[in-house]
Amino acid sequence: MKTLSSENTSEEIEPPKELYAYHATSSFANDISMPYLSYYAVRLGASFEQIAWIQSLMNLLPNALQYFWGWISDTKSIRTYWIIGGSVFGAISLYLLSTVNEPNEMLLLVVIYSVSLSIINPTWAALQGDWMNPSKRGSTLSKFHVIGGLLGLVGSLIAVYSVYTDGSNSAEPFRPLFIFAAIATFIGGLILIRVPYRDPEKTKDLVLSETAKKEYSNTFQSYVRAQAFYALNMSLIWPLFAMILIEVLEVDNIVLVAFSLVGAVSEMAFQPIMGRLVDRVGPLPVLIMSRIGFAILPFIYAFFPIIEVMILLQIFILGPCFSAFLITSNAMVLDLAPNKERAAYFSYYNTRVGITTFVGALIGGYMAGYLEDFYSDTWKAIFTIFIISGIGRSIGTIPFLSLRIPKKYPGSIYLVDRLMEFRMFKRR
């Protein structure tokens, strides 16, 4: 492991190419496997409730265990060591996922894989922050996501090829995807061996008064609460997508893969735009835009359950909104966290959001199962959950409008002025 000197705290920061390479392999592994986990489970015979448990555990465990690993990353040893160890652990569990024959086996391996993610995620976010110029976070994060998106696109195309050449509507075409993901995850861990150590203190921290520190802390707490409530309502419909596509719309495997592919391409295409926008106006306005977009989606899904409409939504709403979310969620935490506590802040944020998405996905899955029995109609059950999620997301957008980020961006003052004018007008 190489070590950099810490002579100059004002140096221009440029992330080493190995960090981009790691993110590329990680994105490839994720995009070739995780979008199809629920489809794989349904093809193995999973019920609403089993899908809910798979989705919930994938949300809870990688996040709930982060508090410990975030603290370890901030205080013990070098961040890359923990990511390398987590990558080896994750690669083994991904390979084993390719061998499962029924949903309960998948549940056990999801638990094991989730532990590896709990090690990797907060440490990786903090490592990225160590190598970022604070004034260029949006564009740097978008560069990471564009590079990751390109390799993720390759993974998605391999998934299309695997499903197309197999030709069956069974679980078999999905098995090779998890083998590829395991190999990429292992290689990604090895790449990080070459990353030099960078002291988090080399990036200048803001010198804040006690009042300012309290303001930053209060803003962070408010942000976490807003995200947690919104995520609760978002996650209600997560267990339902595989069911609506396979059981209601009865699409074949090639359409399932294409559905995920077009969303990934749209997300990647909007990354540079969102990155530049974040650098200009700050992460909060862009995050609010994504929250509004995600609030609209469930209503359109509910009233237009047509595969062509759903694919168009992947391109024109989900893609730009998800790319905005990917950049802004990290940028918000990096703006509010002290340099030496980044991993702890990320783990705190992810733990709270993970717990709420765990609860939300379970509620959505079990409620859909109950309503399916009550109505004797799968579509009516899904429709009801979509409407509930849309209403909850709409309400959940409101707390974001009251957030104020202490850090100023070149264009942020104008947006804040307009927001304050709107709030004053409402009070009259």
Considering the chains and any ligands shown, give keywords for the structure.
disordered N terminus; 428 residues; 0% strand; Growth Hormone, Chain: A; transmembrane transporter activity; mainly alpha; MFS_trans_sf; Sugar_transport-like; transmembrane helix
Give structural notes:
The protein is mainly alpha-helical and 428 residues long. The chain has one domain: Growth Hormone, Chain: A (Up-down Bundle). Helix content is 78%, strand content 0%. It contains 16 helices and no strands. The chain has helices at 17-33, 37-43, 48-64, 66-75, 79-97, 103-130, 137-166, 175-191, 210-235, 241-248, 253-281, 283-303, 307-336, 342-375, 378-401, 412-427. Helix 1 (17-33) packs parallel to helix 7 (137-166), helix 4 (66-75) packs parallel to helix 6 and helix 14 (342-375) packs antiparallel against helix 15 (378-401). The chain is globular and about 60 Å long. It starts with 16 loop residues before the first helix and ends with a helix. Mean pLDDT is 88; it is low at 1-10 and 420-428. Residues 177-428 form the Major facilitator superfamily (MFS) profile domain.
